[in-house]
Amino acid sequence: MPMLALCVLLAAACAGCQHVPGQAGEQIAAPAPQPLLLEPRAIEILKASSARLAAARTMSFTAVVSYEHPSIYGPPLVHTTQSAVTLQRPDRLRVITSGDGPANEFYYNGKTMMAFSPAENLVAVADAPPSIDAMLEAAYRSAAIYYPFADVIVADPWRDIAEELDLAFYIGRSNVVGGTTTDMVAYATRGAFIQVWIGTEDKLPRRARAVYRSDPAQLRHQMDLSDWQIDPPVAADAFMSKRAEAAKRIPFAHPDSKPLPEGQAPRAR
Length: 269
What we know:
It is globular and about 55 Å long. 21% of the residues lie in helices and 41% in strands. The protein has a single domain (37-250), classed as outer membrane lipoprotein receptor (LolB), chain A, CATH 2.50.20. The chain has 6 helices and 13 strands. The protein is an alpha+beta fold.
């Protein structure tokens, strides 16, 4: 939608809000359902990016994730993590995470998943399903392990977006994110409002900003993706760690020892 048209719509909506319903015996009508706004250009860009990611047999990238937490003084504080991600479809994943908190490592080899805390020398190991998608769901449900870049590494990113998509529009181009030219797209699902920056030429995502609709504080979450490598050679032993295997074993379980309900939407940590 052109920005001028969007401004006109917003101005009209604000003008309508100035009227106070119910005066002089007026009947208050239920609001009419709003039609979905799915701009073809925005959909095309999202589909192209998803197709590029889905076609990769191996990939690696760095994800820097910043997310806000309320402070006791009111304004939110920002917490940041950095993850080096390597995957091999359909059943290999390695995530090495550092940041504003304890470092951790995650390994998945198609049969088992392993979460390792190097500083404490503790490891949790569990049997895992035979695909990255199913493993991500199992890790979240059983141990609350969730990665904000999950939508980037699933087998079909577009399918996961399309299932709950109710808004998508093209914003414009940027030359200041990710060291390249990107197309900016905003879209909304039942759970979140998201703005993404996608490489104009290579179709790879460089940044995403999200606000969860159910969050009354409207805290913001940002993820920057860099160091992209598509279909690089990956060593056979990349998805294991001898140091982790030798660490002290602990249960692979939710921090509160209570599995999360099936189907519950994950939240960025």
